[in-house]
Amino acid sequence: MSLSKNQLKLITSLKQKKYRTNNNLFIAEGTKVVGEFLNSNFKLEQLYCVNQSFYKNYDKITEVSVAELKKISSLKAPNNVVALFKIPEDKFIENTGLTVVLDEINDPGNLGTIIRLCDWFGVRQLVCSINTVDCYNAKVVQASMGSLARVSVVYTNIEKYLQTTNMPKYAALMNGENVYKTTLPKNAILVMGNEANGISEPVLKLLTKSISIPRFGDLQQTESLNVATATAILLSEFRR
Predict the structure, then answer these.
(1) pLDDT tens digits for range 29-70
(2) pTM of the entire structure?
(3) Strands 81-86, 98-102: parallel, antiparallel or unpaired by DSSP?
(4) Is 56 helix (H, G, I), strand (E, B) or coil?
């Protein structure tokens, strides 16, 4: 069974957020990433692959040619399979454990990497401001390398959220307390700010503590760390 025009139109449209929202669907690509979602609670809508025998246990399969796969793939080198999954319903925010909050992260690669970091460090939920890039953006899904299947990502008004929790709230700042000299709790909220502007002023006013990663270079001229890199270092310290 080859790819129909309607299928091609639908898959192409899902590269835009409004059509992902309208159809309640997102795209996952590649054997590893698709496999992670197939082994999770995400519901498969349709799977397009060049070799159906690899996915013989699934019903919703369309076998396509390599040329057809290239038409629907966002990758420079398409990897065997493209799948459509249902976007799950909004999740409940838990006020326990370690939670990462993102204030207007714009870069899909950064968000995907942060989702992967949360998975690595056992952070079960990621709370994002409404203006943070969509976690079902194809580039985010790809950068998360399947970790999106295991990390709960919630979009909400983070100012209201921060006002409703009594957990200690840490701001990641350039001029905060040296994280290597700070005793960090197991239950806390870590807020990471926008790539260019940091944490917005209204959000900053709601945070109880600030931490920073000190510079060790002799000249001290490095302006800042990439937000995903900084998140990795800080999560490592929270888990120490």
Answers:
(1) 999 999 999 999 999 999 999 987 778 778 899 899 999 999
(2) 0.93
(3) unpaired
(4) coil
Do strands 61-63 and 44-49 pair parallel, antiparallel, or not at all (unpaired)?
A: parallel
Residues 6+ apart with CB under 8 A from 203: 103, 158, 159, 162, 191, 193
Rounded to whole angstroms, what are the CA distances from 103 to 98, 139, 238? 16, 19, 19
DSSP 8-state code for residue 43: P
Question: How much of the chain is in helix, strand and coil states, percent to nearest 5?
Answer: 35, 25, 40
Which tokens sit at 106? 């714009």
**Comparing C-alpha atoms, which of 175, 163, 95, 107 is closest to residue 140?**
107
Q: Which amino acid is at 60?
A: K
Q: Find the radius of gyration of the CA atoms of the chain.
A: 20
Tokens at residue 29, please?
Answer: 């690509």
Tokens of 73: 């793939």
CA dist list (Å): 34 to 53, 141, 177: 15, 10, 41
